[in-house]
Specification:
The chain has 411 residues and is α/β, with parallel strands linked by helices. Helices cover 34% and strands 23% of the residues.
């Protein structure tokens, strides 16, 4: 889903989506607007993304605003598209009423055939457009429509920590726009990647700023998309700038990932810029242990998206954390260990009453959720639950994954 906003230039990267219509499945690519002779470096990179989309597509949808009519810029773009010798569907947009729909006749002067009038806002003419798109595309059998299992990974962090650079380094091309200007990425961009016969869906997200620093309305939409990406992912790579250390916003992001029950890998980027790596490693580990003490289970890796240092080792960590998030402990095995933990350190007495944990079981994965049945759940202090979580990790692992423990009374 791309961000929609009245301001121009909101869409920058290529955003891909899939659509099935009357037995035909096709990919749709949303691009930024075509700009003649761009001066701004970000807009210049945006035009390169448009050209890539044009080259790889078999059918082009040329959108013209019916309210504005045909402009000189539209005529220039029409000539450029015609030179590509590809199938072009001319689309008149914002046909919000029958009178505006009649204005599509003005588009004939572009010489691109019969135009289709639509209103995305009011869902007018959209089915006609889908019919036109699907008309010359081959229908796929149901077997082709089934998607293989894929590990969904959200790449998150503050602005300018190198999220887009990491995506480009992993796939070996400039798939998303990278610029020193903060806030370059706006839409969440999904990139599918295959490695060692495994499928990964990486989501490159907008930088997550503090609320006080959000100046434009579009940033709210970008951040909302980034947070949705965390909610729908299997695990997140939280990128930090090794040259800047860990700041308060990093802690907030890590806290949100934990609250959503997602696995996490901490990637310290820009490691190539660190001179005394031994001293910096100790300092950053101590800083992480202090500021992210609520997530001590998160594995740490130092990388450089610019030089590709250790970036492919991320796949080993992704596979490991994903596997840990799927781990399920049998009830009999869990209770065997539970009795030993209780024996080694019995629950403390509270208000003159002794707390008893009768038995426990794992009820969910992603994240692993354990239910402990007690005589009175109000008697157990959170510090004892932390002790039990540490014992679970010591005996069963769950690297990179938050653990949830729920208490229930048993009569």
């Amino acid at each position: 889903m791309s961000i929609v906003h009245p301001d121009s230039g909101i869409t920058r990267d290529r955003s891909y989506g899939k659509r099935s219509w009357k037995g035909v499945t096709f990919s749709v690519v949303d691009t930024g607007g075509i700009v003649e002779n761009p001066v701004d470096p970000v807009v210049h990179k945006m035009q390169a993304q448009v050209r890539i989309a044009l080259d790889e597509s078999s059918t082009l949808l040329f959108l013209v605003d019916l309210k504005d009519g045909v402009t000189p810029a539209d005529k220039v773009i029409a000539d450029q598209l015609r030179s590509l010798a590809k199938r072009i569907i001319l689309v008149g947009t914002k046909a919000d009423n029958p009178q505006l729909e009649l204005a599509k006749s003005d588009l004939y002067e572009l010489g691109l055939g019969e135009p289709v009038a639509i209103s995305a806002l009011h869902n007018r003419g959209v089915e006609d457009l889908l019919d036109e798109i699907a008309k010359d595309l081959p229908a796929l059998s149901e077997g082709h429509l089934e998607e293989a299992a894929v590990v969904k990974v959200a790449i998150v962090g503050r602005p300018n920590v190198g999220k887009s650079s990491l995506i480009n380094a992993l796939i070996g091309e400039e798939r998303v726009i990278v610029d020193e200007q903060p806030g370059t990425t706006r839409d969440t961009v999904d990139v599918m990647l295959t490695r060692n016969k495994k499928l990964y869906l990486f989501a490159d997200t907008a930088g997550l700023r503090r609320k006080a620093r959000i100046r434009r309305e579009v940033e709210h939409f970008s951040i909302a998309q980034a947070l949705r990406s965390i909610k729908r992912c299997d695990l997140a790579i939280m990128m930090l700038d090794a040259t800047a250390g860990i700041v308060e916003q990093d802690c907030r992001i890590a806290g949100f990932i934990k609250d959503q029950g997602k696995g996490v890998i901490i990637a310290l980027n820009k490691w190539d810029l660190i001179e005394d790596k031994r001293v910096s490693t100790k300092r950053l580990k101590d800083e992480l242990a202090l500021k992210l003490r609520f997530a001590p289970y998160a594995p740490l890796i130092t990388i450089s998206a610019a030089t590709k240092q250790r970036i492919f080792k991320l796949f080993d960590l992704i596979n490991e954390v994903f596997s840990e998030s799927q781990k399920r402990i049998s009830t009999s095995e869990f209770n065997e260990h539970l009795q030993r933990w209780l024996s080694d350190k019995p629950p403390p007495t509270s208000r003159g009453r002794k707390s008893k944990i009768l038995f426990g079981t794992q009820v969910e994965v992603q994240p692993p959720n354990f239910i402990l049945f007690t005589n009175d759940r109000n008697l157990l202090h959170f510090s004892y639950l932390r002790y039990l979580e540490n014992q679970i990790r010591s005996d069963f692992g769950f690297k990179g994954v938050p653990i949830r423990i729920e208490l229930r009374n048993r009569r």
